[in-house]
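The protein record passed on for reference:
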Amino acid sequence: VQLQAYGGGLVQAGGSLALSCAASGGSVSTYAMGWFRQAPGKGREFVASIKGNTPSYADSVKGRFTASRDNSLNTVYLQMNSLKPEDTAAYFCAAGRPRVGPINYDYWGQGTQVTVSS
């Protein structure tokens, strides 16, 4: 499956952005889908995931970000509200086979840059 994330941009602190991740060559309905981010000089960080219809979130974004999927459009989304400067990073979507326990994300899209100004 090929993944392409888009929707990043520059936003002021407190603002909102909506990221999308379009899939091809496979159906998002059959995968666990994840969102990750990587800030300059830092490692990759888990942001959110959807296993079936159940989302989960990193503590740092809980209550501000919402992950969802539209199987008919083969797309997953990350709605980001109340953005903070520390949310600045390249955001990536990923797909992995559903399983009990941690997901091994085998497929990764190119990142989309989110920059939050203070």
Q: What stands out?
A: The chain has no helices and eleven strands.
